[in-house]
Amino acid sequence: MMNRKTAIIGFAIVVVAAAAALAAQLSPGTDQGRHLSAYSQPSEAQARQPELPVRSAGDELLFNNPLQENAADPGVFRASDGLYYAYVTGMGFKTYASPDLVHWKSEGPSLPVAEVSSWAKQDFWAPYALEYKGKYYLFFSASAGKGTPKRLSVAVSDSPKGPFKHPEKTPVFRFGPDIDPAGVIDPYVFMDDDGKIYLYFTKALHNVGDHKESHIYAVELNEDLHSYKGKPVRLTQPEQDWENKGKTLINEGSWMLKHNGIYYLMYSANCACNKQYSVGFATSKSPTGPFVKWEHNPILQADYDGVSGTGHHSVVPSPDGSELWMVYHSRMNQQDNEKAGQGNPRQLNIDKMGFREDGSIYVNGPTLTKQAAPSGSTAWRNIAADAKLTVSSVSGKEGSEKLLTDGEIGLYAAFAQNEWAPSNEERSWVKLEWKEAHEVSTVLLHDSGDPKRAIHSGKLLLDDGTSIPIVFPKEPGAAAIAAIGGTKITSLTFVLDKERPDGTYGLSEMTVLGK
């Protein structure tokens, strides 16, 4: 279950005199920074970044979902021009571009419908693009008309904005009588570090006994990206309890990551029309399986009011390459939850994600409140992990205080073991100390994912003794935010207000935006 979650804001702006600041580079030893390989976009995309504004301290360093309306099934990649491109479901595949994952600009449709009019009339679904050998390839599905199966094809352009060309008069891909009659949707292309290329796709809903299911498949592509080797292999089908909701059982929207030699097949399950639509993952030692689904799935789900249909995602690096971010759609209406799954336009959201020490994936979402923007999107960065961290005590697992700067916020009670919990002392505290003074803009504090361990209030103490009151309201996934105003500090301490006799509290993450 989702927590009542920490949010918004006991904040104050203070001016404190201190020594000169020196900005340290983000630690290259972070787990996310070491494992951004095995994307389908070219490696030079991370090397070239557009110039980003040097923003003042404050809300400019934060973002708030949703970020873009009318953006269903976002297929997102980062091109060698440094921009992120999102392609979304709909006639002509409307395209958006962003320098930072937060601010998106419409570039219009990228595929002229006339290019495929000989075979595609409707159902332009779930596009995905990548850059390969100086060209851009747009994979997509479409159908010849109502009641006809969707076909998978690929178009090519010299620009990520299009126009994409499709000289073939028929769909590029055919997979045979075991797959084609059902239709094929949700393409994704994965380029492994051994040079092999794989196409992942979904066999659309088809009869299985007394119900319908959709399954995920993979096949190795040739270097032309227009043909494949061998036969497609089925990788997943709905089988876990959370995936079995009704008589229409769905596995779709696949995405592949490789981390420490393990292949992570991420996917969405259940109907995108309701709150059960969620994201899970499975692992294998081979890109074509067999895959084993994680026993604690799902990792992204709509567990609270005002959000529905969270899924069909992409995964991209932050602008500086140090973090992983999930881009996904949702159906949202915070005023009327009944409408949240019934016809609301799907909207684009982003939330940070990463790998835990045990190899499992976490996602800091879905969120509807202000969060720290992706690293590298502004001149400020999270310096919390650079500090010496000390705590008043630890309850439970020794060393769990390091979870305060591991990147994972508290959202789900099921994962509350991945946070710091103090013992039942009178004044529990956390202290961050840097070797040199840093200019700090904003501090974000996320409390426990378990409502039984939620923190209600506390104080943030700067190294000159300045005290800032902190209040944790109840919005899911939100942070208590303190605006420091660019003050130079060498340390800060958060002190919890003890309000429960049993002293059961949890603090999941501390983010310090500095330079």
From TrEMBL:
<keyword id="KW-0119">Carbohydrate metabolism</keyword>
<dbReference type="InterPro" id="IPR052176">
    <property type="entry name" value="Glycosyl_Hydrlase_43_Enz"/>
</dbReference>
<keyword id="KW-0624">Polysaccharide degradation</keyword>
<keyword id="KW-0326">Glycosidase</keyword>
<keyword id="KW-0732">Signal</keyword>
<feature type="domain" description="DUF7402">
    <location>
        <begin position="382"/>
        <end position="512"/>
    </location>
</feature>
<dbReference type="GO" id="GO:0004553">
    <property type="term" value="F:hydrolase activity, hydrolyzing O-glycosyl compounds"/>
</dbReference>
<feature type="active site" description="Proton acceptor">
    <location>
        <position position="73"/>
    </location>
</feature>
<keyword id="KW-0858">Xylan degradation</keyword>
<dbReference type="InterPro" id="IPR006710">
    <property type="entry name" value="Glyco_hydro_43"/>
</dbReference>
<feature type="signal peptide">
    <location>
        <begin position="1"/>
        <end position="23"/>
    </location>
</feature>
<dbReference type="GO" id="GO:0045493">
    <property type="term" value="P:xylan catabolic process"/>
</dbReference>
<protein>
    <recommendedName>
        <fullName>DUF7402 domain-containing protein</fullName>
    </recommendedName>
</protein>
<dbReference type="Pfam" id="PF04616">
    <property type="entry name" value="Glyco_hydro_43"/>
</dbReference>
<comment type="similarity">
    <text>Belongs to the glycosyl hydrolase 43 family.</text>
</comment>
<keyword id="KW-0378">Hydrolase</keyword>
<feature type="active site" description="Proton donor">
    <location>
        <position position="252"/>
    </location>
</feature>
<dbReference type="Pfam" id="PF24135">
    <property type="entry name" value="DUF7402"/>
</dbReference>
<feature type="site" description="Important for catalytic activity, responsible for pKa modulation of the active site Glu and correct orientation of both the proton donor and substrate">
    <location>
        <position position="186"/>
    </location>
</feature>
<dbReference type="InterPro" id="IPR055826">
    <property type="entry name" value="DUF7402"/>
</dbReference>
